[in-house]
Amino acid sequence: MTYRGAVILGVGASLPGRVVTNDDLAARLDTSDEWIRSRTGIGSRRWVEPGTSTSDLAVDAGARALRSAGTSTADAVIVATTTPDRSCPAIAPDVAARLGMIGVPAHDVAAVCTGFLYGLANAVGLIASGAARTVLLIAAETFSTILDPDDRGTAVIFGDGAGAVVVGEGEGAIGPCVLGSDGTGADLIQVPAGERYFRMSGKEVFRAAVDRMSDVALDALARAGLGPDDVDHLAPHQANRRICDAVARRLGLAESKVLADLDAVGNTAAASIPVLLADAAATGRIEAGDRVLAVAFGGGLTWGATTLVWPDVTADFGVLGEG
């Protein structure tokens, strides 16, 4: 068996049209724009309208990534999500069918905010083994549908959105994907059995996120034969700005190297890294040949990191129903 390397061939992202500002939330919660910004770095977020599903966002982001890659199909489809349309079955087969790919293997990945990196490891593995030549990886979330509207600790943080990449054969662009988990912390980020709303223990999560993201980022760099000085851009999961900044300091990276879109979209969970990359590519903040360090932490507990040499692609970034 010949093992193959993997590269990103296309990237896309889709956001809901509805913008929810901090002032909108402050009108019904005991909070303010200043309080939210100072603790999270978030100014607004996008939430879906009633009737819009996670799969709707996934299909749009997937179509955009395929268009970016100059193709209309892939050999496999992976969807990373915490908010599937239903608990059973997985949404990936439905998303694949809506994109015209009936018959291809399709499955979901559930690793909460680390979902994109877990899915990327899956995609790279399929290509490395020869099971697929191209994989469409989508991360999509409608976290607004599982937020307690009266919980100030979570309602102000999360947004909805989807990001996608087409991964294909190629040498050297996607580095080793380093993943980890610790189930003893499962209660820190959860939707309790039989309940509707998402719960998070903020202080404990903050400490664990900074520690785990810093450690796994250094591990991914070492396995790729790199050091922090080789990094052009840090693409951290957009948990909140204080976590992102703390990780950058631990790694010795200048603030100017930290990519962020928190101010406009909030924490989009599994979708945050691909949405961030699509946005940064579309706005020229990252360019072909730049070396990117992507790192995430999420429920499970889970964490992961990898390095990317950014490809020469045109990102397709837009609003659901537009373009």
What can you tell me about this protein's structure?
It is a single chain. Helix content is 32%, strand content 24%. The protein is α/β, with parallel strands linked by helices. Strand 4 (76-80), helix 4 (92-98) and strand 5 form a beta-alpha-beta unit. The mean pLDDT is 95.
Q: What separation lies between the terminal Cα atoms?
A: 42 Å
Q: Biggest sheet, open or closed, and with what strands and sense?
A: 6 strands, mixed
CATH superfamily of the largest domain: Thiolase/Chalcone synthase
CATH topology-level fold name of the largest domain: Peroxisomal Thiolase, Chain A, domain 1
Keywords: Acyltransferase, Cytoplasm, Fatty acid biosynthesis, Fatty acid metabolism, Lipid biosynthesis, Lipid metabolism, Multifunctional enzyme, Transferase
Family: Belongs to the thiolase-like superfamily. FabH family.
Protein name: Beta-ketoacyl-[acyl-carrier-protein] synthase III
Enzyme class: transferase
How are the secondary structure elements laid out?
Layout: E1 6-15, E2 19-21, H1 22-26, H2 33-40, E3 44-46, H3 54-69, E4 76-80, H4 92-98, E5 106-109, H5 115-129, E6 134-142, H6 152-155, E7 160-169, E8 178-181, E9 189-190, E10 199-200, H7 202-223, E11 233-236, H8 241-251, H9 262-265, H10 272-282, E12 291-298, E13 302-309, E14 316-319
Parallel strand pairs: 1-14, 4-5, 4-6, 11-12
Antiparallel strand pairs: 1-7, 2-3, 6-7, 8-13, 9-10, 12-13
Please tag this protein with its features.
alpha/beta, six-stranded mixed beta sheet, four-stranded mixed beta sheet, Peroxisomal Thiolase, Chain A, domain 1, 2 domains, 10 helices, 32% helix
